Amino acid sequence: MREDAAKLARAWLENRHSLDPDVVEPVLVIAASDGGRAFFDSLVAAAKTTKAKRERDWIIGGIASFRDPAIEKSALDLLWNNDLDARELTPVLFDAWMETRDIVWDFVRENFDRLNSRLPGARGIPFGSSLPFTAVRYCDESRRQQVASFFQDRIASLSGGRRNLENVLERIRLCSARADAMRPDLIRFLEEQ
Length: 193
Prior knowledge:
Layout: H1 2-14, H2 21-33, H3 37-49, H4 53-63, H5 69-77, H6 91-94, H7 101-118, H8 141-154, H9 161-192
Helix pairs in contact: 1-2, 2-4, 3-4, 8-9
């Protein structure tokens, strides 16, 4: 399926009418999940030249879907690139795979102030208030504590920040509790196989 998606994605980059619009984004995401540097570079080039917002959104969805750590770092670096609108690149921060979420988490911790000042918020809420959501896919108590410690003081004065942090911490806590509750039965099941 990934090979087929890669062929379809390359064809779409050459001819934007080669795929039904309903399948473009899933095709790009699947192709990118196992894609290499050349495909990433072609998506970045397309994002820089594509005028249609809907198509740029699909392309950026693809850019945010690579699982290769080195490519994820390159995708995050695009946030500082003046050739692309950083506001459109936020999926790179918020849609990380399990394989790349630690890279995003490190990037946010190293660049919190820069991200908050570079990216505009919405409806009077600073962008930094949304950054706790970059950690929402974690599922263990130690990471929950790390997220709380990092953001507590940084977003205390940012409108909406405390509430967003509380929501993220609760989601991590619930995921961790669910994993702890399921673990004994899962271990028992696997031992019986």
